[in-house]
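Students often ask why we bother encoding 3D structure as a string. The short answer is that it lets us treat folding as translation between two languages. Here is a chain of 331 residues written in the first language.
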Amino acid sequence: MSDPAVPDHTEAWVCPRYGPASVLHRATVPLPPLQPDGVLIRVLATTVTTGDVRVRAADFPPGMRLGARLALGWNGPRRAVLGSQAAGVVVACGERVSLFAPGQRVVAFPDIRMGAHARYLMVAEQGPLVDWPEALSEAEAASLFFGGHTARHFLRRAGLGAGQRLLVIGAAGTVGSALVQLARAEGIAVTAGCADVHAPALKALGAQATLDTRGTALAALGEQWDCIADCPAALDFDQALPLLRDGGSYLAIAGGLREMLARGRRGKQIVAGPASGTQADLMALAALAARGAFRPQVGRVFGFDALPDAHRCVEQGGLLGSVVVTMPRAE
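And here it is in the second language, the structure alphabet:
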């Protein structure tokens, strides 16, 4: 970079090979050159998601392990700095950037390009990248997109409408808590499957009812839903069929190749596969957050020094919302 005030290296957590959280180590890595459409962000907060943990551990869904290693790297991730979302402040912009300026607070979603587990992050103007909603805290802003865009993707594919019934299994997680809120905003009646300890919070987010799906035989309830969103792969399609109304949908959010190739039966469909997110999705989520219709949930916050502990926390599970990592304030 020509401007000496703009860094050309950044401190980051690097994943040199697949393995446990202990494989992560801190290093100084080069930043790519600022492109004409590039935006350099000083990261204030990021998250460790289930996606980060899966990549670090090579814990890919059944049937997708070979393809994932071919795509991401055989012995370790080619993009060794993980992290798919961040909230921060713009430091520098390329000559063609018109929507952002230095000093502006933004939320970025590099997604599979990753790189957010670092002090600085380079993204394209259409990254997706949006203004930081003023209603959100630092930790909430960093959590805006991973759960929200996944929830929007699957709700869109299910085609649910106001008055229909949705069961969210794993409703306390990042994706599940987003599903509860976004479905509620569409007038969908939500039953939140969660541990009893999280039931009050999920009702406050808009769930009409809660259900401890871990200790309940769903088939014995005699209830049916228009859609079942299964975040932790607690069921399979065969188990979901009798729980679905005619024309219903089973959303295999954590499904593997088998679910992706499965066909619907008895007039009921199965929806699986990776969630696609766009700039429009991020803008829609930011707008919902700005008016209080969507608030990303934060389960626990770690400092940058403890990022491997954040990975272990995600693996342990049991939290309501995202695991956030904040950066040191001194520059």
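Translate back mentally: The mean pLDDT is 94. Keep this in mind for the problem set.
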